[in-house]
Design brief:
mainly alpha; 8 helices; 68% helix; 0% strand; globular
Length: 240
């Protein structure tokens, strides 16, 4: 008699399928993963600090005074800004994952595929020197453009946010990337970065929207220079 085969856990089956897709279709698999994780990061940010309702003009307030009160007033609660989440997800899909996928292949080809501490540290040094600033600037630039900001507004946002965000980046990512390059195979590195970056994406979402979330289209003025923390808290972010 043949021994009864044990049913495969659905999570194990899904993970094995994911690993297969990383081998057969690495770029699209990593991009879709970034799309999902980027969206989750923004939903977390919105749930911690929900977007405020648009500011009413004087005419709207006057009109409200003449309108009969609602017999069933709405209770305050979480209102999901789907457009904002979609922008963050699209950035991961179109920009972050493809660029990171190609960049890690370049690092392996130029600095070696060895998974040892010396190779890992060299890759971290090159990554943080060459790619940290351009990728941070790209994030703010692309998301600001999708929000409808013009060139001057994008430049103001970069001028005020790039350096503080880079300091936060250098407080957390060198250690995280060292572990990633040292222990994680190439095909899984983008996924690990996406997962580790869930808290980072939440942080960036706060930075991107905190001061001007009440506006419908774009920023009329730059962020104040003292609105960003210099450290990187891995959990809920509180901005000064």
């Amino acid at each position: 008699m043949h021994a009864a085969t044990r049913p495969v856990n659905p999570l194990v089956r899904a993970w094995k399928r994911y690993l297969t897709l990383l081998e057969t279709r690495p770029l699209i698999t990593k991009s879709i993963s970034a799309f999902v994780i980027g969206g989750v990061g923004d939903i977390i940010a919105q749930s911690i600090d929900p977007p405020h309702a648009p500011v009413q003009s004087h005419l709207e307030k006057s009109s409200d005074l003449l309108t009969a009160p609602d017999p069933k007033p709405k209770l305050p609660g979480f209102v999901w800004d789907k457009d904002r989440t979609l922008r963050l997800s699209l950035y991961g899909l179109v920009f972050a994952a493809p660029i990171t996928h190609g960049w890690y292949k370049i690092l392996d080809s130029r600095l070696g595929k060895g998974m040892d501490i010396a190779t890992a540290l060299k890759k971290v040094a090159v990554d943080q020197t060459v790619m940290a600033a351009p990728m941070t600037a790209l994030f703010f630039g692309v998301n600001s453009a999708m929000e409808g900001c013009n060139r001057e507004e994008i430049e103001n946002r970069l001028r005020q946010n790039l350096w503080p965000t880079l300091k936060a980046n250098w407080a957390i990512w060198p250690l995280a990337l060292t572990v990633n390059f040292w222990f994680v195979p190439l095909k899984l590195r983008v996924l690990v970065v996406n997962i580790l970056g869930l808290g980072w994406g939440t942080y960036l979402s706060f930075v991107q929207h905190k001061q001007h979330e009440h506006l419908d289209t774009h920023l009329p003025d730059p962020y104040p220079p003292d609105t960003l923390p210099v450290g990187y808290p891995p959990g809920p972010v509180k901005e000064g």
